[in-house]
């Protein structure tokens, strides 16, 4: 956890060693209060004076306080004169380090902060410590291992399952399988505790327990998902404890308190009514006085310990004098006894045979000996045996093996013979004991596992521990060892002391409705009944106290936006809204109304939490990060991996469909946090794993060129920024996102002119703006800002160095410089042409988007239209691939692809079309094909004139220095002339070149000379050369091609949504760069959206799989 420190300059010693001042460097030192000084040196549990600066929730010191991390450039010493600096540090003996004082603390200050560090955070400490939020004293943590960790873990682990279900599990699964169930569950928690101990001792763990450890080890996505699962598990645990409380109340304490009577549905309704009332009552208690709940925790723990001692005492007593709990069997079937009655069909009283209660049950309430009775009753004898034969009996051998059954099966003594009846009524009879659910091994694992949860009770109190790094491992492992011994020994003792049919009797109907485990206790069954009642009440209160705080911690972290409302509460920090949500979710568990159905649900959530604790430890160990230095040394990644595997196996053993649902919930939360959650950097293991995986993958990626089948556009996007470092053409990023079907690398780069020292802040702001826009446009990629004295050099550096290893771009995407003619800086088009040359030299493809501001945003949709591809020269097939990728995006999905190619005089256009269709068929690309015939025509006067004007303008700009206004006026002049020239007829090239005077000029030499004389008279001699020059024949032919091709494209594709064209290469002679820009301008004139494509020679589209 990062901690900021106050800068403490050291006073020069006057007469001895003095303590450093606690004030800032610009304040006069004040002597420390003696009492505060004594408090700071005390090592006990006394309150310490709070001298720490105000901290934000994240733990960092707020700006304005000392040690706020102000950059060194803003230090008062940087800008002060030497005289002022000398006055400030007059008498100081650390003047050599005076420049560092504002940002780096002295060692004495650092050690003082570490010594006084407390991990108790506001809103997480107990209620009684929050009574005065403005207090200046914080109660120092003073809990040791026994009180702070061991006893809370003991109380949370030993609970309702031990008292209400463990005897039934032993009777159903047998001693051997029950031992296996308990052993694997305890082994899972022990391995988890070892992993948790390693994580908890790897630095200071603030209050927050398991959620803090998982989130800071595995990242916000896993932390939030598992934290919410742990919260749900804790909440459903509260529901389970409340259902256990009601079961004890209505079954064993006051059966007459039931509101509904009769069927099984009535029992469930009783659970729902009483459960709702108890949830409401407990929520009110937690809301009003949580401090009383904490003070009663020891009382509840005493009840648990007293009950367990009563069990062991009862076992010892059975060796000498077993308790008298007779059970009645008809044949091998167990009979229910709600009160004492003779276990016989009839008895002799005064030499008179009298029928018993059993006779009346099975003989239609007819007391006569000749009455018609149940056939099974007539054929089998009634037997009475002791339900608690004692530890010296050989009942253990009978209870070794399992006795699973379907729902509604009569509980029978397996080693006792009986006479079966063939045609017996299937209806359940009240005098037999039936199983209420179908039983099998995996189901019992799910019911039992909640009895071993609660191992994180100590880590949840880490803020109250004197030495958490020592107490948490010792106390937790000791508590698990103790409870594991209790559970395993109880299994053997129950199997050795209690008859099997009594063990399988879940609700004690065979022993007069007593709690089965209570019949074994000494001195009275009521010790167990009362002790378990208060134990389950206390556990329910603890769950309703802890779960809202866990939810509040998750909400305050801000990783789940819709949960932020639950981060607020009362003025003292109590989580009011979180308590309401917890009570509501707990009520859902209450409405299920069955302890056996709720237990597997919370087993899933706890197992998932333990799984990720083991994963976090294994991951951190395998990554070997420098910060992974746990003080607890008795761990190994194999133990963590074994614990993770065991937890995963237990999830599917308990209930495979519950496991899938829990994973689905965690997965949805993970993806939601990843998609909408706040960005958090916690130095977690998943980030470290990603770095290791990225490093491994980069090392495996070949530095050579990828195979043809693996080629995909890895795009470097060159953005232009305005003076505010905002993106000029945001639609370029939209277009990049629309190409993401290629699943390639995206690097968004820009260049700021200047030096890095001067432009550092602007570069940071530009990167932040670009990242924000990338997030808005959902562009996944990387951002890179270059600060260079020359924009041209900066772009060159990006093209050369962007990317890493084998993950480098192979395509450059940029916008057409729209104002290249009118710009004040002629380097605009120079930079563009140089970029074209450099991408060609680097053998990279180049995409130039013309009229980029007309391109669609990601929210727009084209319901119809065409994407036209003008395939003039073959440069690898990128022209084919790009429209295919665009059509995968919803913006372009409904557009049709049309491919045009140009046929010359000696080409067979029909054969060309057929070949092209076959080529597209093999490429698996659906498109319309058209071959456009373009014959050799005479060059028009317009083309000749346009070429001449282009060359004259280029020459004039070299010979005279025109102001901005004059350049614009000159450009308008040329535009007017070009517009007036469209009607000129066709002439032969030779005639045109031989007689240039036939071309009508709309401006004169005298006019230009006069314009020039207004600015600078030294340039006059050059104009005779301008007006006597003849256009270059090569330029005329290039202009002719541009004009002719532009006319053909306009004729076919003027209304197309997008036109893709081969981009001609720049001239080898750099003196013709401006002419090259003019050729491209003419080529694309009149088209709305144009994408000029220039292949690099490496991209190939293949027909092979």
From TrEMBL:
A molecular function GO annotation: potassium:chloride symporter activity
Annotated organism of origin: Pantherophis guttatus (Corn snake)
Location of region: Disordered: 1-82
Residues in the signal sequence: none
Coiled-coil boundaries: none
Keyword Transferase found: no
Residue intervals of the SLC12A transporter C-terminal domain: 730-847, 848-1105
Family: Belongs to the SLC12A transporter family. K/Cl co-transporter subfamily.
Domain Amino acid permease/ SLC12A: 149-315, 441-716
PANTHER family listed in its UniProt record: SOLUTE CARRIER FAMILY 12 MEMBER 7, SOLUTE CARRIER FAMILY 12, CATION COTRANSPORTERS
GO CC annotation terms, alphabetical: plasma membrane; synapse
Keyword Lipid metabolism: no
Name the UniProt record assigns to this protein: Solute carrier family 12 member 7 isoform X4
UniProt lineage: Eukaryota, Metazoa, Chordata, Craniata, Vertebrata
Reaction(s) the record says it catalyses: K(+)(in) + chloride(in) = K(+)(out) + chloride(out)
GO BP field: cell volume homeostasis; chemical synaptic transmission; chloride ion homeostasis; potassium ion homeostasis; potassium ion import across plasma membrane
Pfam families according to UniProt: AA_permease, SLC12
InterPro entries: AA-permease/SLC12A_dom (IPR004841), KCL_cotranspt (IPR000076), SLC12_C (IPR018491), SLC12A_fam (IPR004842)
TM helices/strands, residue ranges: 143-167, 179-205, 225-250, 271-290, 296-315, 437-457, 477-498, 577-595, 601-623, 635-659
Topology of the protein relative to the lipid bilayer: Multi-pass membrane protein
Keywords tagged on the record: Cell membrane, Chloride, Glycoprotein, Ion transport, Membrane, Phosphoprotein, Potassium, Potassium transport, Symport, Transmembrane, Transmembrane helix, Transport
Main localization category: membrane
Record's subcellular location: Cell membrane
